[in-house]
Amino acid sequence: MCLPLTVILVVYFGGLDPALRVDNAALVVLKLDGNILEEVGLRIWKHIDYDIIAQDLLKIQQKLRMVSISFDRLGSGEAVRVLTKELPMREVISTQQKKLDIIGLMRLLFSQKRLVIHSRELYREIMEQEWHKSDAGNMLYRHPQGFHDDRFWALGFACDGAENFLKGAKRPMAAFVSSHKEEDLFRI
C-alpha cells in the first residue's frame, strides 16, 4: 500500500524598509513553513550607505535564498531598485490604500496566530503604531513622534511578499513568542 507523499514547502521572504539619512533601514525575514510565517531574522542599518546594505543583503540571500525582498519603492526606495541584479527585489508602491491593505493582512495573520514574532523590538514597534484621522478625514496609520516604524513596515513588506503563497490556506493570525530565537544570520 502506497501512502501519498506530502511535501511541505519552506520558503523565505524579506521585507526591506529603506532609509538613508533620517531613519534607519530595516530588514525582516520571514520563513513560511506550512501555514505559519515565522520571523527568522531582523537587521537594522543606521544611516548606512546603500552599497553596504547591498553587500549585507547578498550575504543573507546566499544563506536563505529568499523568494523575494519586498521594499517600498517610493521615497528612499528609488535607490534600492538598483542595489544589485543578484537580489530578488520586489517593488511595493506604498500608496495609502496599499499600506492599509498590508496592515489588514498583518492584522489577519496576527488574529489567526499564523505570524510568529521573536524580536521584542519588532513587537514593541507593532504595538506603538496608532490610527490617526487626517484633516481630510482619512484614516492613517503612523507611529508617535520620537518613535520608529522601520521594523513594522519591513515586516509588512515581507508579509505582502508572502501573500500569494498564503492563498488557499486557512485564514491566518499572529502571536508574540517570548523566547528569543533569532538566528545568527544577521551577524555578518
Q: Please, could you describe this protein's structure?
A:
By secondary structure, the chain is α/β, with parallel strands linked by helices. The chain has a single domain, classed as Nucleotidyltransferase, domain 5 (2-Layer Sandwich), CATH 3.30.420. Helices cover 32% and strands 29% of the residues. Strand 1 and strand 2 form a beta hairpin. The termini are far apart.
- Largest sheet, order of strands side by side? 5-4-1-2-3-6-9
Please tell me the overall pLDDT: 79
How widely separated are the two ends? 49 Å
Structural class: alpha/beta
| CATH fold label | Nucleotidyltransferase, domain 5
The number of distinct structural domains comes to 1
Helix percentage range: 25-40%
Our estimate of the beta-strand percent is 25-35%
Order of helices and strands: EEEHEHEHEHEEHE
Give the overall form.
globular
Oligomeric composition of the shown chains: single chain
**Broad CATH class:** Alpha Beta
Name the poorly predicted regions: 168-188
| Number of extended strands | 9
CATH architecture: 2-Layer Sandwich
Query: Could you tell me the radius of gyration in angstroms?
Result: 17 Å
Largest sheet, in brief, is: 7 strands, mixed
Task: Give the number of helices.
Answer: 5
Task: List its traits.
188 residues, alpha/beta, Nucleotidyltransferase, domain 5, two-stranded antiparallel ribbon, 29% strand
